[in-house]
Structures are given as structure tokens and as C-alpha cells.
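Newbie here. two chains, one complex. Structure please?
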Amino acid sequence: MKKYIAAAFLATLSLGACTKLDVDVESQLTNGNFPVTPDAFVAATGTVYQKFNAGFGVDIWRMYELTSEEVIITARNGGYYDQGRYQTLHKHNWAPDHPIILSAWQWGYAGISDCNRVLNILEKSVDSPTKTQFLNEIRAMRALYYLYVMDMFGNVPITSFGTAESPKQSTRAEVFSYIEKELLAISEGLSAPATVTAEFYGRPTKWMAYAMLQKLYMNAEQYIGKAMYTEANVYADKIINGSSMALVGDYNSLFAVNNGANTETIFAAIYDANYSGGNAMTRFTLHSALRAKYNLPFSPSNAQCTLKEFYALFNLTNDVRNASWLVGKQFLNDGTTPIMNGSGQLDFTADIILTNQETMDVGPEVNGVSRGIRSIKFYPDPNTNSSTRFQNNDMPIFRLADVYLLKAEALLRTGGSLTEALKWFNKVRVRAKAPEVTTLTLDQILDERGRELAWEGWRRNDLIRFGKYQGKWGFKNGGEGASRDIFPIPATELVLNKNLKQNTGY
Amino acid sequence: MYPTKQKLTKIMLCIAFLCLASRVIAQEAPVKGLVKDMSGQPLPGVTIKAEHLNTRKTAVTTSSSQGLFSFTSLAAGGPYRFIFSSIGYETDTLSGYTLTAGQQVALNVKLKEQSNALQEVTIGYGKSKRNEITGSVTSIKQEEFNRGVVSSPGQLLQGKVAGLNITRSGNPNDRPAVILRGPSSFREGAQEPFYVIDGVPGASIDLVAPDDIVSMEVLKDASSTAIYGSRAANGVIMVVTRNAGKGQGKLSYSAYAASETISNTIQMATGDQLRTYLKDNGKVLDKISDNGSNTNWLDEVTRTGFSHNHNLNFNGGGENSSYGASLNYFDNEGIIKNSGLERFIARANMEQRLFNNRLKLNINLTNSNTTNDRIATQVYNNMFTYLPTVSVYNADGTFYEDPTRTTGTGGYYNPVALLENNTYQGKTNLYLINGSAKVNILNGLDFNAMVSMQNEQINENLYNNRYSMLRQGFNGYAERSSIKNTQKVFEGYFNYDKTFGSHGLKLLAGYSWQENRNGDGFQTSGQNFVSDDLLWNNIGLSNGNGSTVVNYGSIYISTLRLISFYGRAIYDYKGKYLLQATIRRDGSSAFGINNRWGMFPSVSAGWNIDRESFMSNVSFVDNLKLRAGYGVSGNSVGFDAYTARLVYGAQSGSYFYSNGKWLTAIGPIQNDNPNLKWERTATLNIGLDFSLFKNKLSGTLDVYNKKTTDLIAPYQVSTTQYPFNVLTANVGEMTNKGIELSLNTTPVRTGNFSWNTAINLSHNKNEITSISNDLFQANEFYTANVGGRGQSGALGYQVIKEGLPLGTFYTLRYAGKDAAGKSTFYDKDGVASTANTGFEHFTVTGSAQPKLLYGWNNTFRYKQFDFNFFIRGVYGNKILNATLADMNAPIYAFQTNIAEQTLTESINDDKAQFVSDRYLESGSYLRLDNATLGYTFKIKGNKTLRVYASGNNLFIITKYKGVDPEINMGGQTPGIDYRNFYPKTRSAIFGLNFNL
């Protein structure tokens, strides 16, 4: 009996001494065990790219396209009103609490913070050529994120890793020179493949850094009030002369379901219906009645379309780019069987007629009529994931046709060789099987950029550079003032970071 | 013990000496007797123990149904004492008998019913008499439990305990939401009380069959709960189950069968009504939306559900050992087709007493096996809003579907097809082994040790067949997961209980070690099946194409360790003045590295006024106790091993293209917060217990003030410094103040007839007092973003904000219709316009927190009949009827069905469905929850058979226009009815209880 009690005592005391709270981490990667192996370092860089792709296809794209005359989302019989978030983008009367503007900021800085974090991890690893290459690539991605946030928000902070302190706001000029400095520092250390093959597809290369520099300098007049078109052309030439990149023969293949690495695309947001979601073009553009025609596994949501003033650019004879649009009465692939939309034949009208001005609503679809012309440039994908509705088409960010058109534009702006400008301009025309031109104006270049780069996420940037962003189109009156060339810093960011000052005009 | 008023009436009618001179052979003396209650009725089942004070030999017997008992083989001599005990009666002892061989002794005893004050109540790590308790504890015994089709023990308490707010839908697979004394957390799923089952902390409530529960004690204030430390802030519910028996073997069998139907619905337009409405407005349905049918979809998906439950229990024991076992089978058919729950529970327990009862060993084994048949959640919405103008089937027998519809909110799917083409099943196997030892070391000093191991195996399966609209183009999609969760607990504690003259002292000191290892398992998926016949049962037959991504889920092992030291001291002076102090120190591996250990103290005091000499003349007072307590407890529900850590992982779809291949991108999946810790609730409780007029009226009054600090919420942080834009941090503060009253009275009690009535009332006021501190600021959090057609810009329909209660509705203010029949809304200045629908026009419009909860129980007994009815209700809360809002969409009448009431609204009103205070309705209700009529047959011996008929949810008085106002009041967003409500049921039950 006594023994028994003694044993019980001892048992409690020995366990009582146990105050060890730390438990082994069995099935999660934490900072204790990640990253260690070379494969782990590769995986650790992945979020930088994954975040870029995931946010670009919808939110960033909307920031650059819904604010231009290329794309509009009207309310449709109450749907897609969504508290006016699309109509304010269209009418340029957004406020600092706009949810998409907030998403765009968070996309940019989540990406930048992630780059900073990954750079910190990489810097601590053992020196090797791979390490240097990775460091340069992540810095290039960081520059790309900065290019976007600077382009959208103007005066933004330059942040660093490992501090919870709120960063200071920099001027747009400071951010400009930071991006420039970074790109100049790393561009020579990046890979320089003859063309961007699958190995380099979706990763920063020397050509991608040059394309970024070209964009940066092309817009320098807007960014820092200093024309740097000559510098822009230096980097255009470096791509043209340094690489074997060339326009592809088939324009439509650039945006096809199975696009992927090619001789023209310098950098792209790479999508996969199952592995890398973010391209929801068909979901938001097409009409549910088109499901059968395009063999889609889901019914599209019938939201976005183009304005007739933009569609008017697609007036060149034999231009292959004209086929990007669905307009008028719709037929099945046999060309004769009408596609029915309720009781009438599905009819995409160029005119967008509102039944409710205040909600910018086109009302119910009557007699098969569905308002607005649709784009099938990013061709509808039968292998779309029917749950997420994401498709497989990659979205080019930088491609050679853009480099050519920017080069022609810079020549025109600097009074350079017209012959030279015509040469690069007509290369784009010839590939599109559209007529060549013999004279060239800036307006022609903007129109051509519309035709060539429609719905690719550059229109806002182009319109601002050409001074047309405050124009009148659709249901927007125009003349809203230069303050709209920069988005407001999101209201929640101003609350979180007392160092930030709101942009002028908000 | 205490010099209480004389409470025991003992009458020895006779001690007869019957001399049977010629029969004196053995040295044995027969003892016979009769036990009755105070009203003179014979008492069966009383345990009588005869004890020889010199030899220490004992014998035990029990009384028969006539109250008779006898000992035949007691050795002559003595002195003997006889101890009479029975549950619910005060124990009586007759001492000083010396038996003479051959001379019969007859004992005649009347036992007094135990008054409330002396009933033993289970508290943390022990038991206590009611009049010694200084905290707020409500004890509900088996006979007071709710009757009905009960799938989760929480339902047994619904409406019975003041301050306990329990809500439940009609879904057999739903656990009721249980909230004690108002919400004290913002976090979803972090408001449930902590369960302690037979002393095992944190055991699964699904282990226990309702019929096996003897009592449930609800520990409400911190002076009662602080002994459970960081997990006790939401209150503690102690569940006590039937334990091993004593004396001769007993067998009982109880069973019921029930039929359940849908109790109420929302009247939707019929096919003809809808066609007429559209026609009158110059509109027609698309051909695909009208094939001339008049389908009532609700009828198509619902059924009368049959449920039955069987419980077999037997137990018994000898002098040194006892045993008990029970089997329970429960089959609960849901009223929506293909939904249901089936559960089988087996339990066994054994007790061995050694060394003259100084060592008691116990082992308990429980195994519970549950199958949950679930349905696609889209059914709840489509059973109302799918167009009635189309048929269930096409002419060829396939389901009628409209594939051109987009998959918007809730989707548009044939609800019958949803049920038939999608199969969801969960299987859970739970077992608990629990062994304990109690050693009596010295007089008054005990050591208790308890080891328990709980193992939970959860298998979840789903199959969307080739026709499923939920997985179009997948050609059949199967998903399976198998996860094991284990919990090991060791508890060791010393109890010291001693009286020194007028001073009573009870001490407790203990140590607890617990480890939960969760998420040990995997998930997989497959698609492209050649046949739907095998469901998920052979995923190997799937044939995904090259780009298929197998869904491995995000299953990971998370080990959580909790180590605690605890102690309690109770002191009393002459039973008049009671003092209690407890302390617990909890350490958890889940807390941030900077806050690993927490201290949870409490102090309380009680004053038994009735024992004061100045009360001796106040004869109508039986018991009167004033008590007050203050303590601190914590809430760490939902914490796992990784909550506070930096974790690298891959979010779903997190791949990147690298060198022509898709690689998994690995990065942090949450911001880490090394300061994260439990939410802290400090409670001040003052209470009064009383029992008057010879226990005819008893009651309890409690007032409390609960202050919760360090509330956890997701705070916006800037992505300029953090990888994610939210950080989980301890910031906010919230109070709950309330008052609770329960009364129990027996107005009539005669030999044949008695009427007992009990009522409980509770009021709680919740207020969020802060959601900001120096580091983290927030003006408000918008929650409950239920969305709705054309309304996705709203940030939420409830707001968490300082000065308001949790569950504050934040909506548009409806201003009626304009001349054109269009809905208008007020702006902040009170000007009405159709245009005022932006989020800037949202405003605070009401609260989901009830002002009053009540329950009223009545029991009548006449001879062998018993009748009971129970009414419960809620008053003063609001419900957002977003379900009705979504149905009240005349502009979409050609797409989805509308409510019958919508037929009078203009088809041009494109904002009729906008969520506004138009749909904020009173949630007050009074429900006749149960009425039961029973009859008890007395069969010879101790045997009884009771048969009963019972009806549940017989009627409800409410102004609420939805299906039922008993909307979930738990969680972060209480009181929202949004297209996810499994209808309440009305049931008719027939049952019997056999006691052999």
C-alpha cells in the first residue's frame, strides 16, 4: 500500500516536472526548415511570379482597360452594378475607397514585399552563379512591380524587408530613378537567350529588362517631366539588335489557348486553367448562349464589351485583327444556324443603350439583343476549369510589336527618321495583313496601338502618354482634369501608414 | 456535519422480537424492513448497507418495488449500522443494533427527498454540495432534459438554462450553436463552451448518447470556470454519464420512433402565378425556362423523415467491483431527401475497489460511429428559387437543366438533380479510453490520476457524377479524405478535505498534460470515370487528362501541447461563510513565443444566511445564500500549432512556370505574430440562491459583468511591410452584462397529483468597447458580406464597431416605393431616392442580440400518468431575412422564382431585392417546444415500463416571415438568414422506457 502511494507520488512528480511546450513541426515548412535545398530556393522564388500572374489578369487589367475606351462593364439588368465599381472606373470618378484600386495597390506591394523577402533569403545563401541569376531575376520582377505601382499611383514608398515600421513616401521622380537604377544595375547580369524559349518564358531576361527601360523612358515625360525618347530607343535597339526576337507570322497565335513561348513575346503572365489561375477573359466577356459554339464547360457571365468608338478602329481591309470581335447576329460554326438568346437570335449591338443612367444599366435582354461588341482575341478555351472559370491563354506583358510601335513613336516624337519610323510601323501592319502606310502621325500610332494591343492591358498608359486619357467616350464626358492620370492612394493605406500623403486632386 | 435544521425524519415503528425457538440452528439473524418516501409511498431501488462495526464486514441489498428488503445471512452480534441511500433522497443511517441469532429485526424507514441545497453538483475536479458552491452553476438532471429527436447533447439543454442561448436548424448533421452569457469573441466558431465529459477535458461531445447522460452542469462564471484556464471563457459544460452500477444487476431499454415534417416554409409563386405575373407585365419566359409545368420544388426535395433510437443499458456489481455497459443506436432521417445521420455508440465501464475502498480503479471505454449523409448546399436556395415553370425531368427521364445559366451566387440548378447527382458522406469513428485511479492516502487526503486517449478518425467522401452541374465537363469527380485526430490527457491531482472544529478546509492541487495531434491524414481526388456506379469507392478507376490537378487539400499535422498547473482552496466557517480561491497556470504550444504561459486566478465568497442565528425564527426560509466571485479565464478555441508562427506553404493553385514546367510556389501563407495569445475574459458574478416554504419555491438570481480583452481579429496591415494585408492580433475589448433568474416551484403536491413548474429568464447586453490599440487601429470591421444580385460592392451587412453589440446590422434604409413602384432608400440626411444604394448610404439598423431568453417547463403527475409541456422563446432580436430579400426580386422573375408576396410588386423595381432594413425583421418568438404524455406501468418486482407520446415544435408565435426565426445566433455574424437554412422540423414521437 505504502509502496503504491510512493509510486503514484513519483509518477506525478516526474510528469509534473515536464513543462516542455515545444513540439516538433512535422508537416509544415517553417523558417526552421525552409528553404535549405537548391530546389527549395527555386520554389521560394515562385510566389513572386505566381502573385504577379494571379493579380494581373483581372484586377490590374481592369485598372488599365476599364478606365479606357477599350472595355466597358455596364450593369446588366441589375447584375454587375456592384455598387458602381465599374462605372466609376469608366467615368473616371473613382474615390480612394474603390475596391479594385485597393486590390491593385495590394497586388503591387504584396509582390514587392515578397521580392524583398525572397531577396533576403537568397542573399543569405551560399554564393553561386545560380544565386546571382536568381537575385537579378527577382530584382527585375521587383522593378516590374514598381513600374506598375509608380505608373498607377505616382508617389509611392520604396520599401525594405524586415521592418514593421511604416515606409516613407517617395516622389514619383525618386521611384522613377530607383527603377532606372535597379534595371541598369541588373540588366547585364540577366540571361540573354536568342529568343525567349520555354526555359526563359515568364522569367526576366535581358530583353525584358530592356523592354521595361524602354517603357520607363517612353513615359518619362509623364513621370518626371523630362522627355527621354532617345534613351527609350537605345533600349529598343538593344532588343532588336541584341536578340533574334521576331514577330510571329500568325497574330492570333499570340493569344491562343495554347500560346506559350514564341519569338515575339518577351515577357508574359503565364496562365493555366488548373495550375495558374488568373485569366478570366472568356468568363467575363462572352455570353452564356455562346457556350455550345465554343464548346465551353461553363456558361460565361456576359459582362464586358468594347465601345463602338474603339471598334471603329478595326476598319482596315484584310486586317486579321478584325476577327477579334463578335458583332451583330451570331451563328454557330456552320455560319447558318442562329444562336438563340431566349426567344430571339443572339445579337451583339455596337450601340450600348442604357435603360438606367444612374446605375449605367442596359436593362434586360429583349429579342435576343445583348449590348456591346465582344472580344475573342484571347480565344475561348474549351479546357477552361469549369469551377474556377480560368482559362489557359497566357497574357503578353511585353512583346516585340509593342517595342516596334514604341520605337516608331519615339522617332516621331524626337523628329527622327520617318523612313525608320515607317519601317517599324509597317512591320506590324504587314504581319496583320493590313495595308502599309507611307505617312505617319502620332494619332495614327495611337490608333495602331489600339488595333495591335487591344485588351492587352496597356491602353490607360498609352492614352495618358498621348494626352487623350481625359477624352470623351462611352458615358464619360471627358475633361475631368489631369489629377485622374494618377489613381488615389487607397483610403485604407492612408490609415495604416501616416507617412503617406494623398495624391493631388483626391 | 453542519448543524442544519432537523431535516431527517426517522420513524422506527417497531422492533419486534419474534422468537422461533425451535429454529435456532445457525448463528444468523434475519433483518427485514420497508422503505417509504415522506408521503408514504414505497420506495424501490434504495441501497441498504449493513455494516458490522467491529468486524467491518458489510452486506448490501436493495429494496423491491414494494419498498421491501431483507438480509438473511447477517452474523449475530454487533453493533450493526444500516445505511439507506438512494439518488435524490437524503441518506439515513440507523445505528446500534445488536443482533441475536434467530431473532428477526424489522426496520421501517422513511427517506426524505433531498432538497436542492444538498444535491451534489459536479464542478471542476470534484463535486460539491449545492449550498457550498460560491460560483454560478446550473445543474440539469436527466429528467429535465428536452425530449425529442436529439442528435447532439446540446439540444438537451435548449431553453433550460438561464443565460444559455442555443440555436439549431432541422439538419440532423448540424450541431447546435451554443453561446453562454453573450458572445465573447469575434472569431467564427470560437464561442462554444468547453466540454468536460466524465472528467475528461475537451472530449468530443459526439461520444455521448443523450440517454446515457445523467446530468449536465453548466459552469457560468469565472470563479467556477477559471480552474479550466485558457479554454474556459465561454463557460464549461460538465457532462456526467451513467457509471458502473451497484448491487444486483439492472437492465433498462429505451426506444423511440419519430416522424418529422417541415414545420414552416416561405410561400413561393406557383408556375401559373409566375406566368401570369410576367404576362401581365408584357414579358414571357424563355422557352428553356418554361415547359408548361407547375413544379413545387420544395415538395420535390422534402419528405417525412422517420427516426428511431434504441438504448440498452445494464449494470451491476458486487462488494468490490461493479460494471456497466450500454449500447445506443440512432438513425435520424433528414426532412430533405438524402440527408441523415446514423450513429452507433457502445460504452463499457468497470470499477474495482481495493484495500478496503482505499484504492478505486476505473476504466471507461466508449466508441461512437457516425455516418453523416449530407447534401449540396445549393439545394437550400434552389428549392425555393428554381423556376416552378419547368419540370423535374425531361421526357427521356434525365433531369431538366438549363446549362446556359451562369454559376452566380448560389447557382441555378435543378434541386432534385442536385440531390441525386451529388453524394456527400462523412464517417466518423471516435473512441475514448479513460482510466482513473483514486488513492486514499491519509484520512482526508486523496490522490487522483486520470489518463485518457481519444482517437477520432474522420473520412469524408464526395462524388459529383457525370451529370452534376457542379462539376461540368469532369465526367465524374470523386474526392476522399481520411484524417486522424488524437488527444491524450493526463491529469493528476491531490484532494485534501478536512474539518477542524468549526473550520472546514478543502484543498486541490494538480497537474495536467495534454497533447492533441490533429490532421494526420490525406486527401485525394480523381475525375473522368467511365461509370458513376462506384461513387468514390475506387478512385483508381479515374482517368484525369494531362492537366488535371489532383486536389490533395491542405491537410497537415498539427500538434498542440497544453500543460497546466492548478490549485483550489475552499474554506468555510461553520458552513456559514465560504471562501474559495482557484488558480490555473496554462502553457500552450499554440500561443506566440512571447506569450507561452498564462495565469488564470479567481476568488469567490458565499454566505449561507439561513444558518445565521438571526434567521432561526424565519421559518419560511429553508436556504438563502449570497455569493460573489471574480475571476479570469481565457479563450483559445481554434488555435493550432501554427496559428502564431510563420508558415511556408502553397496556396491552392499556387504554381509558377519554371523552365517549361509547373512548379509549386512556396511562400508564407500567413503573417506570423509572435505575440498572439488567448482572449482574456474577467467575470464578476453576484448571485443569490434561495429555497423557501419547505422547498416549495426555490430559485437563483445572478448578475454578472463579463469583460473580455485581447480580442482576436484580423487587422489590416500594409503590404508595404507584410506579405499579407491582414495580421491576426489581440486588440479588442468587449463586455457582456446580464441578469439571470430561474425559479422552480411545486404549487400542488398531493398523494396522487403534483404540478411542478420552472421558469428561467435571462437578459444580456453585449457591447464592443474597443477594437483599436496603440499598434493596431480599426474604425470598424464589416462582416456578413452575404452579397446579392447587383450588390457585390457592399463590404458587409453587419458591422463590428465600438459602442455597438456584436451582430449589429449595417444596411440600407428602405424608404418605400416611389410613384413608379421602384424601391427607394434614405441617404444620411433622410432624403429618399432610388439612387441611394452605395455603401456610403449604409447605416446601423438593428441588432441580432436578443433582449430576453426564456424557458418555461411544466410537469404534471397524476397517479401513473405524467404530462409535460415546455415553452421557450426569444425576445427583442432582429434577423436579417436575406433569403426573402433574394426571393423578392421581381426584376429577375424570368430567371428565378419569386415569393408569392412579390407578385404585387412592380416588375421594374430593379432594387426590390437590395438588402435593406425592409428585410430586417423581429426575431422574437414563443415556441411550444415539446408536450409529452406518459404512462408508467408497474410490473412485478422492481420493473417498470413507461410509454409516452411526444410532440415537438407544436406551434410557434412569431412575426418573422422566413422559414423559422431560430436562426444561428452563434459565430461572428449572428442572426442572418441567407439561403442556407435547413428548415426546422415538427415531430411526433412514440417511445418507451423499460427498467428491469
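Moderator note: The longest helix of chain A spans residues 38-65. The radius of gyration of chain A is 26 Å. Thread marked as resolved.
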